[in-house]
Amino acid sequence: MSVQLRPESDAATSDAMTGLPAQLLHDLRSPLNQIIGYSEMLSEDVEGQQREDLMKIRAAGRRMLAVIEENFTSIHENSTTIEGNDREEMAQESTAVTRHLTVAPGLVLVVDDDAGNRDVLSRRLRWQGHDVATASNGSDALKRMRETAFDLVLLDIMMPDMDGYEVLGHIKADQRLQHIPVIMISALNEAQSVVRCIEAGAEDYLSKPFNPILLKARIDSCLEKKRFRDRETALFEQLQANYERLQEVEKLRDDMRNMIVHDLRTPLTAMLVGVEMLERDAALNAIQHEIVAIAAGGGKTLLGMINDLLDVEKMEAGSARLQYDELFADVLVASALDQVASLALAGENTLITEIAPGLPAFAGDKNRVSRTLVNLIGNAIKFTQGGTVTITVTREDNESIRFAVRDTGEGIPSEAFARIFEKFGQLDSRRVGTGLGLAFCKLAVEAHGGHIEVESTLGIGSTFSFSIPLAAP
Question: From its phi and psi, is residue 386 left (phi > 0), alpha (psi between -120 and 50) or beta?
């Protein structure tokens, strides 16, 4: 039913259409909210004539609310008028929905300066299964929020001293509270107010009197989103803790490994000195010399592996300092080929060098650049049988020297390109080694300010290349 007031003058008509002051509208709607709310809750627990009477009270309250909205607000809202079968249907639907929780109950704080409003809303929430606390003003609400972990806050906008907007601002500015969802509530349903609340960080907005079905849906949605965020936060914190613990364990492991490896180098060096002295003993026969040579070769290989590991660890930690000298590409290549010549002969491989004429000297750490070349050429020979290994050196962009080692071996699958440069990274179990050689090469080249890369085709061969700047960085 719609009731129209008929003002006696045009001025009165203008005032009515312009709307009453917001505080007066709030004061008119608040008691109606309580009448409608209490009658709704009572009607859910009674049957027969009593229920019919309560529904009439509720309908009367809604008609009074419709009168206010249609005659004294500047923005007309779609009022709900319950008549006949419609009101009975909503009452049944409300009872069914409010008594069946779709999410786990939460701890809700209701903030409203009107005791009646707090009571109506608190009863409704407890009916739905939630635990409820109340606050009568903004300062009390903020104090309670800092003392208790609430899952949701229902915050009235129009309150004395500190209104809902100001309270919302304090909540969102406090790092301890800003994750708590806030639903703003008001006896006024104004678009400008809704926008202001959402922009300030409110999760949602509800106007009084509450439709119990809508109230439950909004609360369930907010609680579900908060619990999802809480689970996400807890998972992130757990991952962070696990990551920090993993870093601690890795550091302990690396420290222990470095200590063991470092301690191994001293006795191994002493053993090698003894084996080399024994190798020079003229009293040994041919077989004994061969056995001693094998022992010496194994010891040198092991010492090289220990040195590689220690160097890789130092470079990863950034504690290795480069000793810059004036280097010449042709000298470095010749020295590297001398060290791998016997390996190439054993594999029946042909070594080819292609060094561009007139290459300038460049600044670099002789030991690390030389070891990089030896590692790359040695790998190429190791995985090429009866083929060709070509070493080329060119000038790149007039700013760096580029070394490339190309083989005609079995090749490397493209998905393994990144892995082979990792520490202890190996292509497959058939390739015997520590997995430190290419990791050392990558770190040594990057320490010079250069870059290393690989190109490969299965069954055709691979090319490893690296560049070193002409000048020290």
Answer: left
The residue among 148, 190, 146 whose CA lies nearest residue 21 is 190
Strands 461-469 and 451-457: antiparallel
Token pair listed for 73:
């607000």
Chain segment 330-374, per-residue pLDDT in tens = 999 999 998 888 888 888 899 999 999 999 999 999 989 999 999
**Cα–Cα–Cα angle for 104, 106, 107, nearest 5°?**
165
Identify whether the C-beta of residue 452 lies closer than 8 Å to the C-beta of residue 445: yes
**Whole-model pTM above 0.70?**
no
